Amino acid sequence: MKRKTVHKAVIGVFGAALLLAAAGCSSGQKKADLGAPAGAGSTTGTAASASASDPSTASTPATGSAGSPSSSSAASSSAAPAPVTVTSKSGGWSFTGTVPGGDADSAAAMAAFQKYRADLYMIDTKADYTKDISTVADGNALTLANNAVLSLKQANVVMTGTQTDTVTSTKLDMTAKPLPVMTISVCKDSTKLHMVTASGPNKGKLAGKDSTHPIPLIYTVHKSGDGKWRVSDLQTFGDKSC
Length: 242
Fold this sequence. Notes:
27% helix; 7-stranded mixed β-sheet; 5 helices; globular; alpha+beta; two-stranded antiparallel ribbon
């Protein structure tokens, strides 16, 4: 493969090229064997557990009130918990997402997604080609990520700079078949993330074009047969901005 072609293919999940790789994996592609459906209430954890993957992560309730000061205690006790906003910042990567308060499955799905995105950024910028992300990804998402890692290594490139992932919406469906799923829409801003040569005489020199605008992505995260949530697929909209 010509070097120019490799550079395009690498930007993927780690810049713009996994988007191109993802486009090649249509929704009709056969998924990996994901195991038997898990029970709807088997996942443990809380919304605060979404911060466990990063010591710098903070989980804070979204602002707002469940009722007015004059509300009765009975009405207050029956009010739904306030949404929980999860934020992380690690090096040049930052993350923001909100999930329903008191929903353990939503929190667990978001925690898996958050770690998946953090791991990819680390691989992207640290050139850690040995990182195993199978604990938080499977199916097409794992295949695309592994292919992108291999492309980075073969092209001798690494990413440097900052990236921001902002979750714009989530939808949990515990009755989905064959596995419960959460759909997570994200605005990924990697316009300040640059592809450079990783080693050799050209180390640090620009090796590819920068992304020109934030890109909307839609991820599918499912509850695997072992009860853990994993990112399984994604849709890309590289021609759009968010």
